[in-house]
Structures are given as structure tokens and as C-alpha cells.
Amino acid sequence: LLPTERFMFVSNPFSVYGPMIAMLHLKEHALAFVSKKENIQIPMAGRFMLAYGCVSLDRGSTRKATAVIDAAADNITSGRCSMGIYPEGGTNRDPENVLLKPFKGGSFRLALKSRAPIVVAVMSNTRKINRQLFTHVTMDIIKVFTYEEYKDMKTTELSELTYKTMEDWLCRK
Q1: Global pTM?
Q2: Calpha distance 128→109 (Å, rounded)
């Protein structure tokens, strides 16, 4: 089901462990992430993340976001790595366990700029890792959108389509 070329990976961020789980699960696809700058500043982890292709996002500077999207798109188009992004803009820590927070449409500029397939995934049970280290976590690939399917959409439309795809799948579970 997964594309053979590099892709944009989109998932639900219920836990800080999500990116690590996705990177391990999809290691043959060389998956890296757009990550907040605070993660890149972690001494050992930050070096690993940068070496692997992760790019740093300063959430406080929308002006710099374009350069981040450009760097992530270059990682995909050059074949260096696939890029993951959490369109909610961070980990969903809602105590009411809301399925998804609203997506930030701008994150889908990465897909349009790179013309890459979008792999939509949903993870379950990652929050339990904080309480119980050995936890069964699942990651389901629920849809792959080809560039041909979304090339004429605006980022807001693509964001809404992806959100609806994830929401529908989560509500069926």
C-alpha cells in the first residue's frame, strides 16, 4: 500500500512517542519529521533528528515556516527521506480525549510543494506508554492520496479532506 517514492506522512499526535514509533515502523522509508525547535535542542536526540533529516519549526514565527516547508519538501524531492508532519500542530493532550484537534491547513503546503503522495495514518494506545512502558501500540495506514488526487486542491481543502478521512476512521473504531 505504501508508495515506493518518498512521501508526506500525516498522523494523529496523541503522544510524544508517536514520531519514534512511526520512524521505527517505517524505517525502510527513511521517515523524518517536522519537529518543534525545542525537540531539536535536546542534546543527543536533537543531533540524531537533524542527521536523520528532521527539520526544526519555530512555532512562534510564521514567517520562518515557509523555509521549514521548503527544507522538508527538498528532503522529499531529493529522495533524502519521507517527511512526517502533525497537522494539529502538536500533541493532542485534551483531557476529554477529543479524537482530533483542528488541522492547520498550512502544513499541507508540504504536499503541494513536494508533489508527493500523502500517507494518512492513525496511531492508537501511544498515551498508555507514559504509564506502562510495554504497551501494544497500533499504527494503521488508512489512506494514501496520490498527487493526481489532490493537485488541484487548496491547502485548506486538502486539510479538510485528510481530517475527514482520519475522523471517519477513528469514529468507526
Answers
A1: 0.86
A2: 32
